[in-house]
Amino acid sequence: VSHELKTPLTVIQACTDTLLGGALSDSDTAVRFLTQIDEQSERLLKLILGMLQLARVESGQQIFHMEPIDLVTVVDDVLAGFRTIADTKSVKLTLVATDEMIVMADEQALQTIINNLVDNALKYTAADGSVTVELIANALAPEIVVRDTGAGIPEEVLGRIFERFYRVDRDRSGDHGESGLGLAIVKHLCQAVGATVSVKSNPGHGSEFRVLFSKKHTDSA
Ligand code: ADP
Q1: Ligand 1 touching residue 41 (CB < 6 A)
Q2: How many whole angstroms from 141 Cα to the centroid of ligand 1?
Q3: How far apart are CA 197 and CA 199, in angstroms?
Q4: pLDDT 10s digits, 63-112
Q5: Cα–Cα distance, 186 to 170 (Å, whole number)
């Protein structure tokens, strides 16, 4: 944790020192350092918010309101928030589902789980690729499948991606403000609502994340 927090703070401090030491008078240099400060503070904020969220779930203090929820509506809403990003990146974002799919879950937890998986799928998929969310309405074990045609994940690290702070490509990720907490949060929230998350990947061709709800969490009424 301390390393994760120290890195962006050290960069911010180095940039402000340089600016105060005279770099402020050269506007091009000043913009470069201010941009770095901006990126690193965003990274720090995401990191702190993610750590707080993870701590709340792990401590068992977060209260989950388990109720029958229509997954189609929740996924539709989450995807609506990603349309602009997908269009800007020229990535096709699709929902494959029947009319309604009810599961017993906490709505906010579900939103976060889907949000984090789709966010990653879009982040690691290049232009002209696609991200598909499929809802499999099996009454005994409904499933959410998030598929992308992106970078994929090397087999030797597949088992590690749900660990907190784990990033496959640390150097590149660091530049984009990723925290390495998104999937750790997904895993803990899935446990909290009685679902399990798994991953398959074909490096260079894409990844597939599946969230499987167990029978007792399905509203069969
Ligand atoms: P991050 O904030 O770095 O995205 P996550 O916990 O969400 O953190 O993901 C951990 C790592 O798993 C990422 O850094 C990335 O390397 C890899 N990863 C997650 N989802 C995908 C995906 N859909 N395609 C390729 N790599 C992924």
Answers
A1: no
A2: 26
A3: 7
A4: 999 999 999 999 999 999 999 999 999 999 999 998 889 999 999 999 99
A5: 20
pLDDT confidence of residue 4 = 86
CB atoms inside a 10 Å sphere around CB 187: 19
Which tokens hold the place of 74?
A: 């929740």
Residues in the chain: 221
**Residue 122 alpha carbon to ligand 1 centre in Å:** 10
Atom of ligand 1 nearest to the CA of 206: 24
- Which residue is it, tokens 């340089």? 18
Distance in Å, CA 173 to ligand 1 centroid: 9
Q: Determine the Cα–Cα distance for residues 107 and 127; give it in Å rounded to an integer.
A: 31
181 lines ligand 1 (CB under 6 A): yes
Q: Backbone dihedral region of 55: left (phi > 0), alpha (psi from -120 to 50 degrees) or beta?
A: alpha
